[in-house]
Amino acid sequence: MEPYSLTASRGVTTIKSIITNGPLATQALGKKVAEALQKGEKPGAGGIIALVGELGCGKTCFTKGLCAGLGISPRHVNSPTFTFVNEYSGTTEKGSFPVFHLDLYRADNISICLEVGMLDYLARADSGIVVIEWAERIYSLLPDEYLEVEFSVLSPRKRRITLTGFGQRFCKLLSCSFTENRLGKQ
Amino acid sequence: MLILGIETSCDETAAALVADGKVILSNVIASQIDLHAKFGGVVPEIAARQHVEAIGYVIKEAIESAGKTAPEIDAIAVTSKRGLVGSLIVGVAAAKSLAYALRIPLVGIHHIEGHIFANILSHPEMPIPHVCLTVSGGHTMLIYVKDLCKYEVLGDTLDDSAGEALDKIAKFLGLGYPGGPVIDMLSTQGNKSAFNFPRPILRSKRLDFSFSGLKTAVINTTRHTDYHVPDIAASFQEAIVDVLVSKTMKAVLQSVSGAKSGSGTKKKVSAISVTGGVAANRRLRKVFSDRCQQEGLEVFFPQALLCTDNAAMIAAAGYARLRYGEVAGLDLDAIPNAPLESAI
């Protein structure tokens, strides 16, 4: 295992803002992100997806869609608040890889995140995909390359979802794959 | 046959001695709720560390208060499936070392199976087959209990568990932890029809649960409306109770009709078993009792001490598994997301 660097110097960023008109559209956006991730060279194409937003904004909903795009039945994807992490097996035409679904709702400071093995999961992101709910609690642990997904509540159903790519790979991914700025019925 | 049960899957460190899967000789629970209350929920790292500190004392207390000695124990049952991985490992390690030292059989139990047995232990007269709803902070599951240790999972939560929704909303409203009892209490002072919250996937024929949308609806309401906290609590609780009861009734009807069961013909179900921490909710008990009376069904709730996580239920499940000839090796592992499986 590569030693994990704690110093995070932020490189280039690309930002895309998309409005979803309901939970289904939020889920569809998750699926789109999964598809974009598959365009990389590695199976599963590795990566960290950091989800940021308040209670009830659609983080688990987005993750269901993301997992659906990675060949995981949405039935198996539920809130890991209680278990802290759910592990799924993603499958695409390029092969199988682990998907780690973390939830830091109950781990509200860095030292708790470290004790539950956050660095181990981040280090395994190379060979799979790590999705982190309440990721704002571990900004300082994130590497230079990751995709941030921030949710703002616009109305009971409508969300503004801001995708920010950190590092070259995610910047390229965003500029190639996301041209529309609205998902779901008007 | 004297069985030592050990349970550390979440925030309780528990050990119990149960004779022949029926008689509880001791049932010791060291709860961490006071500690977790400061943080508004279960904190994994605190849970694991506290288990390590408490487990030795809790096991010793369970043996001594039963008036027994360690060499009298015939087998050990431990929760090894479903829970926080760091917490499960503590109980599993303790169980393995004891089984090795005493040269006695060890069996690993699924936490949900423990909850199913909590009610069998409370009510030996409860008919089998029955439909079991197990509902707590970590899970919301509907199970057709065909026979002892023979299960068919009918429905599970697609996102949040019912207890988790109660905890999160209680924290959001600033009511403290655990959320279930606080909301139960406040609801008695509120109007349960004040807000018409959504009954998630109630219309669907599937028996799965989803409470995430309900949680969002409650949060939205508090943003856009003036509200009286007990009214929100009562209306929110009513929506949860409504979904739990209706889905369970639907499960019983499906079991009776024996529709699309891959496992042969189903027998007629005449009883419902409600277990887990949320089974202590008074409104849930009332609505279940009323509906079951109307439908001519029996409903069973565990005694108070067996509602929340405890080790007596694990020992009872262990007894049943051992009778099927099941024994775990000393390589028994903790598996946080294991599915509920029938005995072979």
Overall description:
- The complex is a heterodimer of chains A (186) and B (344).
- Chain A has 186 residues and is an alpha/beta fold.
- Helices cover 25% and strands 29% of the residues of chain A.
- Chain A contains 5 helices and 8 strands.
- Chain A has an 8-stranded mixed β-sheet with strand order 3-4-5-2-6-7-1-8.
- In chain A, helix 1 packs across helix 2.
- The longest helix of chain A is centred in the first third of the chain and has 15 residues.
- Chain A is globular.
- The N terminus of chain A is likely disordered.
- Chain B is an alpha/beta fold.
- Chain B has 2 domains: 151 residues, Nucleotidyltransferase, domain 5 (2-Layer Sandwich), CATH 3.30.420; 180 residues, Nucleotidyltransferase, domain 5.
- A 5-stranded mixed β-sheet of chain B has the order 3-2-1-4-5, sandwiched between helices. In chain B, strands 8-7-6-9-10 form a 5-stranded mixed β-sheet, sandwiched between helices.
- In chain B, helix 5 runs parallel beside helix 7.
- The longest helix of chain B is centred in the C-terminal third of the chain and has 29 residues.
- Chain B is globular and about 65 Å long.
- About 2% of the residues of chain B have low confidence.
- The chains are: A alpha/beta (186), B alpha/beta (344).
Give the C-level CATH assignment of the largest domain in chain B: Alpha Beta
**Total number of helices of chain A:** 5
Order of helices and strands of chain A: EHEHEEHHEEEHE
Rg of chain B, please?
Answer: 20 Å
N-to-C terminal Cα separation of chain A, in Å?
A: 48 Å
* Relative helix content of chain A: 25-40%
Instruction: Based on Cα principal axes, name the global outline of chain B.
Output: globular
Beta content of chain B comes to: 15-25%
Oligomer: heterodimer
According to CATH, the homologous superfamily of the largest domain in chain B is: ATPase, nucleotide binding domain
Please state the average pLDDT score of chain A.
83
| Order of SSEs of chain B | EEEHHEHEHEEEHHHHEHEHH
